[in-house]
Amino acid sequence: MIEQAPGERRARSAYVAAAGVFAVGMAGTTLPTPLYGLYREEIGFSELVVTVVFAVYAIGVIAALLVAGDFSDVLGRRPVLLAALGLSLLSAVCFLFQNGLPLLFAGRLLSGFSAGLLSGAATAAVLELAPSDLRARAGLAATAANMGGLGCGPLLSGVLAQYAPWPLRLPFVAHIALLLAAFAVTRALAETVALRSPRPPLRPQGMVVPPQTRAAFVPAGLAAFAGFSMLGLFTAVAPSFLALTLGEQNLAVTGLVVFSVFCASTAGQMLMGRLGVRRALPAGCLVLTAGMAVVAASLVVESLPVLVVGALAGGLGQGMSFRAGLTGVSAVAPAEHRGATISAFFVVAYVGISVPVVGVGALTLALGLRDAGVAFAMYVILVSAAVGVFLLLRPPRSE
Questions:
Q1: Under 8 Å between Cβ of 179 and 92
Q2: 208-399, which class in CATH?
Q3: Is the separation of the CB atoms in 85 and 94 below 8 Å?
Q4: CA distance 87 to 80
Q5: Domain Major facilitator superfamily (MFS) profile spans what residues (predicted)?
Q6: Which end of the chain is more exposed for a tag (fewer CB within 10 A), N or C?
Q7: What residue spans in the chain does CATH classification 1.20.1250.20 cover?
Q8: Virtual torsion, Cα 260, 219, 65, 206, nearest 10 deg
Q9: Which superfamily is assigned to 1-206 in CATH?
C-alpha cells in the first residue's frame, strides 16, 4: 500500500471541505420549513402569506443568478463563497430577532441571495478543488452537498423545535455556529481562479438561451419547472398538510419527511449517471408523475405513510430529470454561453419553485388546504407527464 503525501491528502480532502461549506450554506435556505406553522400562530397570517414568504426566497435566488451568476469567474471562488455565507448569516440573524413579517421577508430574501451565489460558486469550487482522478466523485459530492444541505435544514430545525427549548430561536443559533465554522474552512481553501489584471468589469449576465440549445432547453426546462414545483410544495406547504390535513403535529416528523424528499432527489441524480440523459430525462418525468399521483392520493385518504411513499418517488423522479436536463443543456450549449445558459436553466427551475406554490396558497382560500393540494398535484402530474411522453417520442439528442 502506497502512503499518500500530506500535500496529496490535503488536495484530496479540499473538495470534501468545500462540499461541506456548500451543504451548510444550503441548509439555511430550508431551515424555516417546519417552523412556518409556529410563525403563523405567533404572528397570525394565512397559508397564502406562508407561500409568499417562501416565494420571496426564490426571487432572491433568481436575482442573484441573473445579476451575479458569473461573478466568481471574475472575483474568485473564495470571495463569492464568503459573501454567500455572510448573506446566510444575516438571514439567520433576521430570523433570530424576528418580531413580525418584515424580518421574515428580509430573512428569506437574503437567504435567496445566498443560495443564488452558492449554486454556481460552490459547485465550481468543489469540482475544481478535486484532483483530476476524483472529478466524477466530486460531481456527486457537489450534488449531495446541494440536495443534502437542503434536506438537512428542515431535519435540524424540526428536531430542535420539537425536542429543545426556544423553537423559533435555537435552530438559527445552531446554524450561525455552523456558518462560523464554514467561514473558517472557506478561508483555508485554495483559490482555484487565476485572477486577471486589469480585472474585467462586473456586469449582470442576464438570461441567455442560444438558438442552437432551445430544442434541448425547452423540454429540460419544463421538466425542471415541474420538479422544482414539487420541491416547493414540500418545503413551503407540506408542513401545513401534515399538521392540518394529516394531523401530524410532531415537527421532527415534518422535518424528516422533507429530508426524505431531498435524499430521494440525491439518489435520483446519482441514478441518472447510470441511465444517461436520453433515458433518465423522460423516465424521471414519469416517475415524478407517479410520485405526485401518490401524494394526491395521500391527501384524499389522509395517510402519512402514503405521503412518504409519494415524496420518495417524486424526489427520485425530480433528481433524475433535473440532472439529466442540466447535463443535456450543458452539453449542447456553446462554450462562450454555457454559464449563462445554465443560469437560465436554474432561473426556470426557481420560477417553478415559487409561482405555482403561491398559486396553492391562493387556492387554499377558495378550496381549503386539502383540495388545493390535490389540485396542485394534478397540475404537476399534467406538466411532468406531458414532458415525459414528448421525450419518449422525441428523445433528447445530447449524448
A1: yes
A2: mainly alpha
A3: no
A4: 11
A5: 13-398
A6: N
A7: 1-206, 208-399
A8: -170
A9: MFS general substrate transporter like domains (1.20.1250.20)
Q: Which cell goes with 116?
A: 443564488
Cell numbers 409561482 correspond to what residue?
355
Residue 20 CA to residue 373 CA, distance in Å, equals: 34
Nearest to 161 by CA among 150, 174, 149: 174
pTM reported for the whole predicted model: 0.88
DSSP category for residue 202: P
What cell numbers appear for 39 in the block? 410563525
- Buried b / exposed e over 364-377, threshold 16 CB at 10 Å, is beeeebbebbbbbb
